[in-house]
Each structure stands twice: as structure tokens, then as C-alpha cells.
TrEMBL record:
Residues 1-47 are annotated as: Disordered. The chain crosses the membrane at residues 49-70. The keyword S-adenosyl-L-methionine does not apply. The lineage of its organism: Bacteria, Bacillati, Actinomycetota, Actinomycetes, Micromonosporales. Residues 12-23 have a biased composition (Low complexity). Residues 126-307 form the Cell envelope-related transcriptional attenuator domain. Coiled coil: none annotated. This is Transcriptional attenuator, LytR family. Pfam families: LytR_cpsA_psr (PF03816). Belongs to the LytR/CpsA/Psr (LCP) family. It comes from the Bacteria. Keywords: Membrane, Transmembrane, Transmembrane helix.
Length: 404
């Protein structure tokens, strides 16, 4: 079934289904809004079938361009045919005044990773990975900012599910929006509205990926190179007869279990291992903050592998990669056509995927002793909204992730 993304489709009830260089140079000041940029436009690359791909939260946000634009767009449309398209933003989408009617300015997307398992109710799921992807109006750089899952948030009322609003951990917003028939689309909408209320950032699009999608995409890639910075024992998996198994299944086997331990060092990881490592937080020095950086590292590693493997120059490989994520990914490209979004972001490469830290990479409590975003982090999100994030990072290099 062909993907239709020009207009955001109606919500369905249920859908379960880089580090910058050491020298960070701020870009020239922009013209203040979409369509008002006075900076000379860059010429389109002339490389035949040149392509780039960035894999987002276990699936992918494609970034391509090439001389054969018509053929490339046709390939994109065919390859994305199995990806579910839903309204994931609701009232948190950018207005026309914010540039929501064009892709000529900065692009902001909300990326959510959910841990949905077959034994859990479809609407009893929280978003364990919350990432804001910011692409400045120059369209030649991309930033990933993770929001800590335990951050205290004012979650607004959500009429669709009868939710009256509450103060809770931010990852609960997804659960409140998904209940009572809201589905995953409702969960994403309430999460987007919560983030907008907290930071002022509106979105051009969004994506949800079931963590199981990580494994499928990595397996399609073969493996990814991950650098483990802290040795950590998995709380999710064990070896039984030399094979990795979920702990619950390992216990049922009645056989001897050996803990899965992720040792320090860089190596190629299969899908199950990379996914398991990226989900650990207990036993890490900075808990969820270290996990955020590990998840960002995984996204970048997947993007690099997809490029080096030639997935973007081989139609069969590209389709296999997208098919692997298709049934675990839900996408909303707002009012943009997916092919237009892809070509708009053609200048972003995996080496320009910059990972940023919130709260200086460690816990920050508020006056109630609950986790909150620090003043510096709030300034960072203000810079996102005003499209001056490169200047902010230049002035505050400590927000750069230490992961490679």
C-alpha cells in the first residue's frame, strides 16, 4: 500500500504493532523564520545517486539525494510502503507561523522508543526513550537530545482519553495518552504536547519504534560497532546453553543461567547484544543519563553501518532494511511528503549527527527532590526553538556527549 504523507492522516485507535568535531563553529545568523533566510543557498550535490541514511530509534530517518531525483523518490515510496502513517503530533505540530507549512527552515522531530511486549496490554506502555531531533535551517547538521524519562512534567489534559492532567514522570505521558482507546498515536500526541508545554518546542514530525525493531534492523545490517564505556551486567538477559535468552524465558527453561555481561571495549555487536546494552541503566554510574548516551551511540552506529554497507546505493538492501523496521515503526511526517522530507535533509551525514547531553549528563533535582531539567538544559531547548543550537553548543561545549 503506498504511503500517503502530504496530509497528516487521522489517528487510529491502536497501533501496537554525533559527536561534533572539537572545533565547533557557529553558523551565520539566520533571517529569523522559515523563508526569510538571507544566507546564500548551497548548490545541490551533483554526485550520481549520492545517498545518506540515519537510522532513528531502531528504524531510520532517511536522508538522501542524487541526480536521478524522480527514480530515487520512486524507490523511497516503494521502500516505505509498509511503514504505518498516523497522526502522532496532534496540537503539538508546528503552526504556519512556526513554519509548519514548509521545509525551508529548521526541522524538529520527536522520536519515541517504547518497550512493548506480547504479554503486556497494548495501552499499558510508557515511552522509555524520548529524543528530540533538531536539524537547523542550513539542513547540513543534525542534533539528538534525549529527555530523561523520569523528568517531572506537567502533563496536560487529554480529552481524547478522558485524562484530566497530572504532575508525573514525563514517560507516563505516553501511557496516559494511549489508554482508553487512545492507542500509540494518542500516546505520542500527549507526549508531544507535554514536551511542547515544558520546552516551547513544536514539531514537524514524529516516529515511534518498538524496541524489538532495533534488533530487526541491526540483524538486517548484520552487526553494528559499539564502544562499551562501563562494564555492566544485563538485568534483562542471560545465557542458557550458550544462547542469549530473556530472563523470564531462561527461568522457565529450568537450566543453568549465566549472566550476560557487557565488557568495556569496542566491538561488533549482533542485534540482541546491541539492543540489550542500549537498554541498561542499573549498574551504570549515571543511570538513565548513561543509557541515553548509549542509545544515541547506537543510533549513530546504525547510521554509519547503513552507509558503509551500501544500503543507500543498492535498492534491494535498502528495501530489506526498511522492511525490517516496517512493522515496528509508526511515522508522522506532518504536512510534508516523505520524499520531500528526505531530499530536504540530503546534506546531513552520519559524521554530522551530534549527540547532546541534558543536565550535564547526571541527575538534577528540583525543589521537591524530583528530577527536572536544569536551567542550562532549558536554555538549550530555547536555542532549539530559536534555531541557534550551533551557537549554543559553541558557547557551552559541555553539552556534547562523550560517546563516539
Amino acid at each position: 500500500m503506498p504511503v500517503q504523507t502530504r496530509r497528516r492522516p487521522p489517528s487510529r485507535e491502536s497501533a501496537p504493532a554525533g559527536r561534533a568535531s572539537a572545533s565547533v563553529v557557529p553558523p551565520p545568523r539566520r533571517g529569523g523564520g522559515r523563508g526569510k533566510d538571507t544566507t546564500p543557498k548551497r548548490k545541490r550535490r551533483k554526485d550520481p545517486l549520492w545517498a545518506r541514511i540515519t537510522v532513528i530509534v531502531g528504524a531510520m530517518l532517511m536522508m538522501t539525494s542524487g541526480a536521478a531525483i524522480v527514480g530515487s523518490k520512486a524507490l523511497i515510496g516503494q521502500a516505505t510502503g509498509n511503514i504505518s502513517q498516523q497522526n502522532l503530533l496532534g496540537d503539538a505540530g508546528k503552526s504556519d507561523a512556526e513554519g509548519g507549512d514548509t521545509l525551508e527552515g529548521p526541522i524538529d522531530m520527536l522520536l519515541l522508543g517504547v518497550d512493548a511486549r506480547a504479554t503486556w496490554a497494548a495501552d499499558d506502555v510508557r515511552a522509555d526513550s524520548i529524543i528530540v531531533l533538531h536539524i537547523p535551517a542550513t539542513h547540513d547538521q543534525a542534533y539528538l537530545i534525549s529527555i530523561p524519562r523520569d523528568t517531572e512534567a506537567q502533563i496536560p489534559a487529554f480529552k481524547k482519553t478522558g485524562f484530566t492532567g497530572a504532575t508525573d514522570k514525563i514517560n507516563a505521558a505516553f501511557q496516559y495518552g494511549a489508554r482508553n482507546g487512545g492507542g500509540w498515536a494518542g500516546g505520542a500526541q500527549l507526549m508531544a504536547q507535554t514536551i511542547k508545554k515544558m520546552t516551547g518546542v513544536s514539531f514537524d514530525g514524529a516516529a515511534i519504534i518498538n524496541f524489538g525493531g532495533f534488533k530487526k534492523v541491526i540483524d538486517a545490517l548484520g552487526s553494528v560497532r559499539i564502544c562499551v564505556s562501563q562494564e555492566v551486567e544485563s538485568i534483562h538477559m542471560s545465557y542458557v546453553d550458550g544462547e542469549p535468552m530473556w530472563n523470564a524465558d531462561a527461568k522457565k527453561s529450568g537450566k543453568k543461567r549465566t549472566p550476560v555481561v557487557h565488557k568495556k571495549g569496542c566491538r561488533e555487536m549482533e542485534g540482541w547484544e546491541a539492543l540489550d546494552y542500549s537498554r541498561q541503566r542499573y549498574g551504570l554510574k549515571n543511570s538513565d543519563y548513561d543509557r541515553q548516551q548509549n542509545q544515541q551511540q547506537l543510533i549513530k552506529a546504525m547510521a554509519k553501518k547503513a552507509i558503509s554497507d551500501g544500503a543507500m546505493t543498492n535498492p534491494m538492501k535498502l528495501k530489506a532494511l526498511l522492511d525490517a523496521a516496517g512493522d515496528t515503526l509508526i511515522l508522522d511526517t506532518g504536512r510534508a511528503n516523505i520524499a520531500d522530507l528526505v531530499f530536504t535533509m540530503r546534506g546531513v551525514t552520519d559524521n554530522e549527527l551530534t549527540m547532546l547531553r541534558t543536565n550535564n549528563g547526571t541527575y538534577h533535582g528540583n525543589e521537591h527532590g524530583r528530577e527536572a531539567l536544569s536551567p542550562l538544559t532549558m536554555d538549550m531547548f530555547k536555542a532549539v526553538k530559536e534555531d541557534r543550537l550551533a551557537e549554543f553548543v559553541f558557547a557551552n561545549p559541555g553539552v556534547l556527549s562523550t560517546r563516539k
